[in-house]
Amino acid sequence: MRRIMIVTGSLIALAGTAAPAQAQIVQRPAYEPVARANPFLPDSRLPGPSPRAEVRETRERIAAAREAGTISRREARALDREARLIGRLSLRYGRDGLSGPERVELETRTAALRARVNRPRG
Question: ∠ at Cα 26 (23, 28), nearest 5°?
């Protein structure tokens, strides 16, 4: 009986040391050269609504929120002022076509304005 326990214990110990050794026998990964990004290719994101359309929709939401009484007249004026600023920027940037950073700036400003209009008030 004692001999069986010794053999079983030694087999378990042997199996425990063999597994890490076996896991280390792996070939090194082959890293292939990666092509450089081409700055002349267009942006790969799908086109969304134009910044002007988003601003127009946001201004409509501001007016609807003001009529519903969820925002004050003062807050509606401030939000509408910000929407007009974004609209003017989109016109200025759009004269020669929107670059990537310009589009990102307009999208970020519009998203921030939309969040301010849609935030819950208590």
Answer: 140
